[in-house]
Amino acid sequence: xxxxxxxxxxxxxxxxxxxxxxxxxxxxxxxxxxxxxxxxxxxxxxxxxxxxxxxxxxxxxxxxxxxxxxxxxxxxxxxxxxxxxxxxxxxxxxxxxxxxxxxxxxxxxxxxxxxxxx
Length: 118
Known about the structure:
Layout: E1 2-5, E2 8-11, H1 15-28, H2 33-40, H3 44-52, H4 59-69, E3 71-74, H5 85-91
Antiparallel strand pairs: 1-2, 1-3
Helix pairs in contact: 1-3, 2-3, 2-4
């Protein structure tokens, strides 16, 4: 997701980024935290937590604050085409099977062998 502030795309990857986007939009409009809080119906302290990127704020209130500050969320897609094999390989590269040390491999249930070599 990315946020669009007054026609500019600002990437938002974390809650902290989202808070910074709200702060930027608010200050560009010469709006104080108290002004924004009054528009949203929350305390100034709540706006401060939002702008600092507090991870546990009510989602609807976050969306309300974004709207009051003039921040809109849009999704960004690199391509509308079907992903290529190389794109899938890149996405799943971290899940590639890596060789394991045989001493760390545990047998599946029912496949256990007696420890005395039988």
